[in-house]
Structure formats: C-alpha cells, structure tokens
Amino acid sequence: MATISAHPLCDEHHPDWQAGDESIPLPSSPLPQFENHDQQRIEFTTCYMCACRCGIKVTLEQDKVRFIQGNPDHPVNKGVLCAKGNAGIMKQNSPAKLQTPLLRKRHAERGEAEFEAISWDAALDILTTRLQKIRDTDPNKLAYFTGRDQMQALTGFWASQFGTLNWAAHGGFCSVNMAAGGLYTMGHAFWEFGDPDWDNTKYFMMWGVAEDHASNPIKIGLEKLKRRGAKFVGVNPVRTGYQAIADEWIAIRPGTDTLLALSMIHVLLKNQQFDWEFLLRYTNAAYCVVNTPNQVGDGLILRNEAGDPLVFDQTQQTFVSGKQVGLQPALFGEFTAPDGRPVRTVMTILAEKYLDEQYAPENAAKGCGVAASTIERLALEMAHVAFKESIELEIEWTDWAGRKHDKFIGRPVSMHAMRGISAHSNGFQACRAIHFLQILLGSIDCPGGHLAKPPYPKHIPPAIKPAKSSKPNTPLSAPPLGFPTSPEDLVIDAQGNPLRIDKAYSWDAPMSSHGLMHMVITNAVNGDPYPIDTLMMFMANMAWNSSMNTANVMDMLRAKHDNGEYKIPFIVVSDAFHSEMVNYADLVLPDTTYLERFDTISMLDRPISEPHSACDSIRQKIIEPNREVRSWQEVMLEVGKRLKFPALTKEDGTPKYQDYKDFIINYQKSPGIGFLAGWRGANGDQALWGDPNPKQWEKYVENKCFFEYHLPPAMRYYRFANRDYLELAKKAAWVGSTEPIVIELYSEILQKFRLAGLGLYDGPMPTRPEHKERLVRYFDPLPFFYIPIEQQRQSAEEFPFFAINQRPMFMYHSWDSQNAWLRQIMAQNFLYLNRQQGEKLGIADLSWVWVESRTGKIRVQVKLMEGVQMDTVWTWNAIGKQAGAWGLSNDANEAQNGFLMNHLISELLPTPAGELEITNSDPITGQAAWYDLRVKIYPASPEESGSYPQFSPLKPLPNMATAPAVGRYQAHPAVHLNRSLGDILSRGEK
C-alpha cells in the first residue's frame, strides 16, 4: 500500500492518522471518472460580462458550457478572470433570455407586456416599413440610442448611413467627462485611452474608480504595485474594494476632487516642484495669451498670419512661432505684442490662478474634507518620487523634429480616475485638474507614468466634428458625434435652436462628445426641440437603472396626447434579456448572448490595446441559439440593405455584403483600414493596414480571437512627440498628421465659448441669459473648482448628506443581478451610512429609513459602517429590480428589498418659474450629474419595512421560461465523492 510522509495539516484527530505513525495509508481503489474529456472541446472568445473585454477559454461538452476560464495569453487579463466572467455560464442559461420577436397587441397599453410572438420576417418588415417612411421625409424623426454595446463604430456607421443626427451611446451618462477631459487636454485619458505604467510606477493615486471598471487589469496592476512596495493612495468617499488595500485612503467629500487636485497644484507651484523642461517642450505653457478684458479676442492665443501660436523667445527677445525648434521661450512673463496688445504666457496665468489663497491647503481642506497637512504631504510625496526617484531607460528614440535622444526619462507617478470623478456637473474640470497634476510632474506617457494606449494619443481634440445637418435618403456628411473646436461647430439652426433631440452640441451642452442619452425620453415626450416618430434602443434599460427620475420616466414612456396617441409613437427595443425596458416596447427584437454571435472589438471603436501594443479582438459563435433570436449586428445590416444604404448596396441595388462576417472583412473606412487590424492583406501577412483578407475571421479564431501588434521599444513612450510612433500612427489612420501633439494646459476652445457667452465672439452667440451665464461661468480655459450646479440650488442644511452609488466588482449594470451564481454574493443592496452619523440620528444597523431628495423619497434598509466619509451615504447600483423582470420571481429579494437611488435624481435642474429648463448635467459636456444628489435621512416607523416605491410585477412574456425556485446548472450529473485527507494530499485535484 502506498504511503506519503506526514503533513502538518494532519493531526491525531483525523481517522487516517495514527499517533506515532509517520505515514498515511491510501486507498487502493481508483477515483471515479468526473468527466469525459474526449467529449469536450475548447473555444476561445471575448467575455461580455462587463466592459473589460477579457479573453476567455470556454470548455464545452455536448454543446453546453462546462466552465469558463481566463485566456492566459490574452493581453488584457492574462488569464485572470473575475466572478462575472466565470458566471457567464449562468448568463447563458438565464431564464430571462428573450425567445422570439414580439409585437405589442393592437389595443394593449404600453408597459402591460401584452405581446404576440411574430416571425423575424414580419418583425423586419414592420421595422423597415416604418424606418423607410422616416428616411424618406425627415431622418431626425428616428432617435437611435444604444447602451453598453461595445460596437459604437458599427451603430454609429448605421446612424450615419440612415441620415439621423439623433444617435449616441451610453457615454453621456457614464464617463464622457473623463474621456473629453483627457482628449481636450493631452489627447488621451483614463480607462480605455490609457493606463498607469504598472511595471514601473512608484506612486499610484486612484480617484473615484468603481470596482467593476477594468477590474481584472486593475487587480493585476495593484498586485504588481503591492509586490514592489510602490505606494497606493485611494481617493474615494468610500473604502471598499480597491481602496481597502490602499496604503492610504483619502475620504474626500463627493464632488470636490477638483479642489483637492488644484490645492496639490498650489503646493507644487509654491515649492517650484514642477518639470520645467517638460512644460516648455511638450505643452502650450509658454504660448502667449492676449490679455484685453472685455474686448473681442481676449484670452485667445497670440498667433502669426499662418495661424501658428507665438512664444516670446528669450534669446532673440522677440515673438516667434511656437512650432520652431531650438527656442528658449519664456515660461513666465508679460509682454506687448507687435500690434500693441498686452499678452502673458499660459504659465503666468496658471500660476496666478492656482497660487490664489482659495487653493491653499488650509482653505481647500474646508471644502474637500481632507486635512491641510495631508494635502501638502501628498503633493510633496509625489514631487519627491517624480524628481528624486526618476527612471531612465537607455533606449534611443527620435522626436518629431528629428532630434536624437539616448534615453527615455520617466517620472514614476501615475494616476487613474473614472466615474466617481466624471459623474458630477463639475466633472470635466475635475478630470482636467487631475491631468494637470500629471502634466506638471511630467508623468505623461513616460516610464512609470500614465501611458497612452493605441490608437491614442490623438491630436487635441481628435479631428472629428459632429454632423450639423441631415436630409432625406442621404447619409450624413460626418459622424453624429465629434469634438467641437468653436461655436461654429454646434449642431443648431440659424436661430440657435438645437437640431438633436438630446440637445447635444447646443448651448445647453456645447462639447457633448457622447450625447445626452439621459435626456432623450424627456425631450421626446415634451416635443422639445421637436417630436419624433420612432425611438430605437439597443441594450439600454431606460425604464429602470439607466434613467434619472425612473418612476417619472416610466410614466413618460406611457404618456399620451389628448387624442390618445402616444407622445413617443413607436418604441423599438433590442435586448437579449427581459429587462424592465422591454415591456415598454412596441416591437421587441431579441438579441443573442455573447457566446452565440460574431462580434468585433475594433480599433475603429473601443479596442483592447495595452500601452505597448495595439490590440483588437473578436467574439466567435461557439453556441448555436435554441431560440428565435438574431444578433443586433446582423439585424442592423439586414435593415440597412433593405433601406438601400449606399455603403451596403451596389448601384443596381443588390447587397455588397453577404452577412456581418463578410461586411467586417471587406468594408474599408479608408483604403487599407477596416474594422479589424490583424492579418490584413490578401495573404493575411499585413498588420494594422492592408487590403481585405478573405480568411481574416479564421486567422483570429486560430489565434485565440485576438490580435496584438507590439510596438518597438523606441515607440513606447513620449508618443505625443515621438517621430517613429507618429509616422506609424498616421499610416494606421490613428492620427491625421505627424505633427506633434501639443498638450493643452490652456484651452483656447473653452475660451471661444466663454467669449460667445460674453457677447465678444465673432461668430455664433447665444441669446438666452441662462446659456450666456453657463458659458461665462463654467467655460474657464483653466480648470477651477465650483460647487456642483444642483447643489448650488438647494439647501445643504435641509439635505445634509451626499448620496452616491457605485457598482461592485462582481456585478455590472443591471445585467448581472439576474445571475444565479452572482446573486449568491448579493441579492439585496443596502444604504451604507457612517456609523457615528447613524448613532447620532438614532438609526440602528439594518433598520429601515426614509431617504428624501428634492424630487421624491425612497424607503431602504441601512447598514452602518466605518469606511465611508462622514457626510456621505452610498449604495450598490442596479441591484434593485422591478418584480417580474430579468427572469426573477416576483418575491425576489432584489424586487422586495433592493432599491434604486435613481428615483431621487432628476434629469433637470431645479429652475425658478419662467426660466429655461436645463439638463442636470455638466454644462460643458452634458455628462449626467448622477453623483450631485443630496438627501436627508430619517427612521421609518416600526411597521414600515420593505423597499419603496414598489411597482406592479411585470407580466411574463410569450414563450419565456418560468423562473425556477432554485437556479443551478450542471453540464452532466454531479459526482459526489467523500475522500480521505490522505487521498486529497496525495492525488491532488482529479
């Protein structure tokens, strides 16, 4: 009989252990067979359980998912997979999956779920007929808005071909401030645009990052930091997840991040701790700015006849083009321009602004709640690491002017920020302020700093402007979304009225790069600026967690005119699952799951690139659907062919492409540039650009569904000024020229809009006083702190608590709280309150309380905790559900005890009678101000329990599976085994 040596886990109480015996007897019988590997196959694809887009390895047995693992070769997650990714099995087997196209019965009321199942041919005929009438007359009568679709290049392409201005995705209510703040400052940003240099950074500061965003890459990165002993500082009102392992937690008041960042800049300037050479060489800090207050042209950059920005060269003692090389421009100073106008450098304006006493730590501390000594220490710690612990990589590289360098100099301080910063009405300026900290330290795209990810950085801003007009049966001349550079780029009519239903790119929100999805339903119902005919939504749960003021939005979806007609005449919803929004559709088009379709994660859209490599990926169909469903990608192309989109049909009207796969292979945005960057060329031997390859999909499948182009070492840093990288980027169509990307501390674009508000602009100017005030007050060319707008208009004494929400690492939006495995982790959210505050208010742990805002109230259950800022309450978002949705039983915890904070938030600002109603959003970008909410809290009476408000349970849809009492999944019968400890230790996992 075989034996093994004694193990410390074994003791005398174990039946296999005999006192004084040095061995453990092992059973001679073989282990039973757990599974037959010969009946299994392995497929690779891309996860869709959140926006991380990790590579996954899926084991299937008899065409059923056996288990899901991370792909160890994948550039994003390197084999790591979170709870969401593993639980993709239960999403695939969800009873909430839609089964067939549905049409609302003729006399049924919207929202009652009185549907009849119809065929796909009938559904497509209904949709095409309606859309054709719209396209023949006024394409803007179609509003097409999508949620977390991860294929905005395709949906945007479709909208452009249709000819509607009214297209946008989820970014306007998620993180457009973060994206725009970076793109208008340094050509890239946080999240998908850039990453910390996890391998080299020595000091990392994380601002307002929820745990679901990029969770696997961040976990990998944080593990590297902790292993190397780098310092990790978490800035967040709540200490959960990432912040729980931070070396230092900064419990900041929500919405005051700008104040903290600018106070640290005050300390850096006061102590002259900034990178002089970086500012002079790579930013517009030395540009001269006209200083003629109350005159046309004030605050614009001084330029020569060619339009070049001018600097004052200290050697020549005159103004010269800032594009010249070999200059010694003055970083500080005030001068007189050749035409007699006074000018001063950007850095002079910046220093004057931030050395003001309002940003001194002792004053900033009163607003942000962070001790003055802490503010000063953090700033000086970062400066010490940047300048005393700098990194030098001995790699030769060439800058844009042809100058050779023998090394890259790194400032090993990095940062990351996300929705906790962006989802405020001051979030754009907050994101810019955080970038300013990085720029002053010289830690942009350098070793140890914040690195761009291809196809970024872009020139500032990216050279795409939004389409401004539409006409019947004609594609738009530009994409619906873009980056305005002046009031001339606004999408308004001759009278200054918005041309988009969400009022993006109007005086309400001039630089709204992602649109205002949260305003679509409100504006459409009010007919402001005009009524629409059809609202088409893909994967956007606007009847629940994706809307502010949810209960009111649900009413608006049902709202009718006096003649009984719906104010939104027709609603089309495509989703894979029975979300709350489905019941409000007139036509339901069931989508596939992510394991049942082909899909691209494209360089034209939101690629999976890493800092040192350009990457994209695909999803492949590894499971055949057992329902009457079609991928939304295929549906869009089919409808586009039926509508004779020029890009999809030949001159004789026949289709150019057979199907989605054929379209992805052969469509070219420009010669050599398509949706997928890998294995291009007729022989598949070209990367990034090249002719279509008929076997491109097969090459991706052969290579585990992703493509990775490694940048040579000489191209990996300083890409905003790296000649070799810029030349590569131009060939790959990532940028339009090889000119250097000059980092813009001072935003002349913002100043142009401010001049328009002042009535001092030679171009379009607003006429409404509300718009003028917003432009003058908030479009400062340098970041500044202001109290969030909604909070300016209500009493802090009446509503003493900030109220925010975030998403947990193990769930994403409302997708995952239907998941049987993930529900075991959490099936009810609580309102988390600081324990000391709870005791002061007489609120006990797990008691029920009322939470009231200016728009309404909710009843929730409280949990007391220490790890939350004193004036802040928070909860996990999207756990609460409407009874009957998502395949859950009517008595599910999520419906009875879970809740939404959304009921307390309004999409409109509080407005005095007679004034213009304006969106509760960032005035610059239109970002939904989810986190500006303030509330009061008081105990519910003893007999009051359960969440409020409650809504009638949703009716089951035709052909839907019945929600099981217990959700479980097994690929085959389980093998129950009792094994001795000795057997376990000797044989391992079998």
Across the major sheet, the strand order is 7-6-27-26-25-8-9
The low-confidence parts are 1-22
What's the shape? globular
Considering DSSP H and I runs of 4 or more, what fraction of the residues is helical?
10-25%
Structural class: alpha/beta
Q: Would you mind describing this structure in some detail?
A:
With 990 residues, the chain is α/β, with parallel strands linked by helices. It has 27 helices and 36 strands. The strands form eleven sheets. The protein has a seven-stranded mixed β-sheet with strand order 7-6-27-26-25-8-9, covered by helices on one side. Strands 31-35-32-34-33-36 form a six-stranded mixed barrel. A hairpin with a 5-residue loop joins strand 17 (334-336) and strand 18. Helix 8 runs antiparallel to helix 11 (361-368) and helix 11 crosses helix 12 (372-388). Residues 1-22 have low confidence and may be disordered.
Task: Give the topology, please.
Layout: E1 3-5, E2 23-25, E3 40-46, E4 55-61, E5 64-70, H1 83-86, H2 88-92, E6 102-104, E7 115-117, H3 120-137, E8 142-146, H4 152-162, E9 167-168, H5 176-183, E10 194-196, E11 203-207, H6 215-228, E12 231-235, H7 241-244, E13 248-250, H8 257-270, H9 276-282, E14 288-290, E15 310-313, E16 318-321, E17 334-336, E18 342-345, H10 346-354, H11 361-368, H12 372-388, E19 391-393, E20 397-398, E21 404-405, E22 408-410, E23 413-417, H13 419-422, H14 427-440, E24 450-452, H15 520-526, E25 534-538, H16 550-558, E26 570-575, E27 587-590, E28 599-601, E29 613-619, H17 632-642, H18 660-666, H19 696-702, E30 706-710, H20 723-731, H21 748-758, H22 769-778, H23 789-792, E31 801-806, H24 820-823, E32 831-834, H25 835-841, E33 848-852, E34 857-865, E35 872-876, H26 893-896, E36 934-939, H27 981-987
Parallel strand pairs: 8-9, 8-25, 11-12, 11-23, 12-13, 25-26, 26-27, 31-35, 32-34
Antiparallel strand pairs: 1-2, 3-4, 4-5, 6-7, 6-27, 10-24, 14-18, 15-16, 17-18, 19-22, 20-21, 28-29, 29-30, 31-36, 32-35, 33-34, 33-36
